[in-house]
Amino acid sequence: MVRLSIATAGFFLATLLSVPALAQTRPLVTEEMMVKTSDPGIEIYVRNKRPADMTTFRPEQTVLYVHGATYPAETAFDLKLDGLSWMEYIASRGYDVWLLDLRGYGKSTRPKEMADKPEANPPIVTGQTAVKDIGSAVDFILRHRNIPRLNLLGWSWGTTLMATYTTENAAKVERLVLYAPSWIRQTPSQVQAGAGKLGAYRMVNRDQARERWYTGVPEDKKASLIPAGWFDAWADATFATDPDGATMNPPVLRAPNGVVQDGAEFFGAGKPYYDPSKITVPTLLVGAEWDRDTPPYMAQTLFPLLVNSPGKRYVALAEGTHTIIMERNRLKLFEAVQAFLDEAKKS
């Protein structure tokens, strides 16, 4: 792995890992790196996949993905299921694709508060902090590729973060994809924060993750929702990203609670976190009918508020949950997002 700062981005030595060619794909290369943030001691993990023969880079062919409230980016966006990850699906179609773990998640630096008991500190990694991390990643990619803009793709909480960043930095954004977008809440949150005072972070075990995933799925559809082995593949990869949590009984994944605090203060209290009218780039909202984390009413409410987004659209996918990215109908999600991204390449 390469550790580097934005200032020294041009001098890092990358590790290139060949990715096996898949059906209807091109050979890909992978780079992993740590990018310094503006806060001392905090580095964020980014991963890049792109066609091995890609030598020029353009805004419309560059994508940055960020995760949601609980789990890191790479164990969903770049998890090989049936031999293919979503990150590879996009990259094999001629894109320079990046993912980001916010601080406190995945392979990024865990704030010092996570080494203490959760109740010893207030919630960490609020949206304001997370948007700063996105800014660090965006600036690094733009400098590294010598491009002025890129596409942003967020999932769940990541939609709030990417939308907020876009309202503040429209000149750096080509297109915006909001997968399972969050908005003003009319139903209870599915994020399990525990009882009592909100601490620095929360702990989620494997059974809780499975239960949350299946919430809202009709009983007669549960057996076929997730192909055999896919949940375990995701859970094994995801819980392994938290070695300290793995030593607990039962093993847990620790996740910062800043998002929970923000949710209570904004969407849970009927207040918008950002102003949709300030989004001035083409925007796609995409979600699934059985989503109980960000139910369809959220996207349906948000969509007409995007009054200054040219070419906006909303795609509703059948028979999927908040986590359709790793379900039997995942290709419907991939295809909808790809069609939106490809429009810019054709123009």
Automatic annotation (TrEMBL):
Organism (species): Bradyrhizobium jicamae
Signal peptide stretch: 1-23
Gene Ontology MF terms: hydrolase activity
Highest taxon above the source species: Bacteria
Protein known as: Alpha/beta hydrolase
GO CC annotation terms, alphabetical: membrane
Record Gene3D superfamilies: alpha/beta hydrolase
Ranges where the AB hydrolase-1 domain occurs: 86-190
Keywords: Hydrolase, Signal
InterPro entries associated with the record: AB_hydrolase_1, AB_hydrolase_fold, AB_hydrolase_sf
